[in-house]
Design a protein that fits this description.
Helix content is 32%, strand content 23%. The chain contains nine helices and 16 strands. Strands 4, 5, 6, 8, 9, 12 and 14 form a seven-stranded antiparallel beta sheet that branches. A four-stranded antiparallel beta sheet has the order 7-13-10-11, with no helix packed on it. A hairpin with a 4-residue loop joins strand 2 and strand 3. The two termini are 31 Å apart.
Length: 348
Amino acid sequence: MKNEEAVKFYICNCFLTDNIFLVDYKLHVRFVSEQQFRLDYDAVLKRLGCVTEPQFQDVLNKIAQEVDRRRCLDVKSAERAAAIRNVYRPLHPHVYHLQDSFLAPHFKQIAEYCRSSDASEEGLISLLEEEAAPRVYCLPVFEQSFCMELVEELEHFEKSAAPKGRPNTMNHYGILLNELGFDEGFITPLRERYLCPVASLLYPDCGGRHLDSHKAFVVKYDTNEDVDLSYHYDNAEVTLNVCLGKDFTEGNLYFGDMRQVPLSETECSEVEHKVTDGILHRGQQMHGALPISSGQRWNLIIWMRASQERNKLCPMCNKRPTLVEGDGFADGFTSHSAPTLNTSCVLT
């Protein structure tokens, strides 16, 4: 991507009010004021088991903690990244820089085809496995040996004294890869050289031709920690989810329809996720992860954003974004007006 360093990225102000996940009730909520919150959620929380005033106050306290965390997110993240640079010594330094040898041969073949002048969606789909679910594609991404080394690096970091930030409100165990130093040498070239050409053919209606930023993190599932992931959609136009290992049983992913479709009208498809394979899907497509029954699984998640799409409508609040300055890629919004695309993300 040209002149990426010159682009200033922003977050939407709804980050401080919307999509706050209540773990105890597996519910995403919006909080502007206590009065608004009681009107909007009192009945549904009671149905979910929040029936006493002390329980309700506990919910309010947890929301306040989450809002405070979000307000301080950029500052705390920068502090952690600086501390990591000072105190952490990588086990496998070479994994921080994308190398051709890390990638599965078929994945390289797919990307090379997508970069060719005569590439088409039909031709690309012929190189992919059958759709795992509507517009959900499974493809080999990494070599097994690289996955093993990357997991070893992540485990080494976990055991270190370096500070760690959780990826989001739903995943309590994982690592933010920008803080660890993976963005510039690994994730950005992976997005630009390999994932963007693929997404441009598979998801042109969802901003796939204009993926200009990302958020990348790893999540860990363990029978003694997080074992599953509730039904949700991503703050992304296109998502890649790669299974890195290790040994585990069950824990399949499941996909529904786009977030605008009522759950009562949705039929979910279950998708097996194998080590080294990536699952590519629209970020606004509802999905989740079933519980693992044994072992441990690490997943690399890359939320890819297209400012041309999200500048028109924030995917989290469904309004034109109110921009607030952020660090790095922030949440992928830009201040300049982008050319309008011919179509918006379609429902299937």
